[in-house]
Amino acid sequence: MIVEYIRYRIAETRRTEFEQAYQRAAASLAAAEQCVDYELSRCAEDPGSYILRIRWTSAEDHLTGFRRGEHFAAFFGEIKPYVESIEEMRHYEPTGVAGQGGSLPTLFSWAGGAEALDRLFTRFYERVDEDELLAPVFAGKDPDHAQHVAAWLGEVFGGPTVYSTGHGGHRHMASRHLGRGITEAQRRRWVELLLDTADEVGLPADPEFRAVLAYYLEWGTRMALLYSGPNPPPLPETPMPHWGWGITPPYRG
Q1: Which CATH number fits the domain 2-92, given the four candidates 3.40.630.40, 1.10.230.10, 3.30.70.100, 3.40.50.720?
Q2: How far apart are CA 52 and CA 213, in angstroms?
């Protein structure tokens, strides 16, 4: 991943047409397989100063793949009149220093914290033990299994790093599914039962939280299905996945 920054100095009389040109040029970025995302920002204190941020899959993909590809001509045709106004155009490598500020609550705190997630999974695994389809999958589980899964989801949702520091992190969670032969019917039932239990124990019911929860459960259970199957992928060496409001693990294709 590489980040390109282009800084413009645009005269007041040209600012509206400049933004409109990039609105049109954005269609080419959206269609380019080398482009991850993009954003044009205008300086609040100095409205003539603009920054275009584009994340590319790599510098080579940008300089050769995109610039020699089918979408570049249309893109450049829109922004060509403003090339002379560029003050800087460079690629930057992400450093790994990134995160969210405190203006939004984490999913962990919004859900009700550790107490709420412990309540959720304690009740959920009580229901699992009584479920004809799921009980065989979890026969002989650790007595503290519910608390371990609560710690996992708590960390994934922005809470304390209990699972990665005390239970082995992402690799360990994936390894726990190897050879279990989970079926698609069992995966679907797991999701359905957990969402029902979230209602039962009183987790927040607002559409935004429930949408992220359902999204995570689909991702997590489909990963479990992959690792439990006959040809599992290599165990992940990546850090714990993290989810937030509009933030999910990166697409890896």
Answers
A1: 3.30.70.100
A2: 33
Helices (H), 157-206: 162-166, 169-175, 184-201
Going by pLDDT thresholds of 50, 70 and 90, the confidence category of residue 145 is very high
Helix, coil or strand: residue 105: coil
Q: Write down the residue that tokens 């439990």 correspond to.
A: 228
148, 25, 135: which is closest to 77 by C-alpha? 25
pLDDT band at residue 100 under the 50/70/90 scheme = confident
Give the right CATH number for 107-228 from 1.10.10.10, 2.60.120.200, 3.40.640.10, 1.10.490.10.
1.10.490.10
DSSP state of 202: T
Mean pLDDT of 116-123: 98
What digits encode the pLDDT tens for the residues 199-239?
A: 999 999 999 999 999 999 999 999 999 999 999 999 999 88
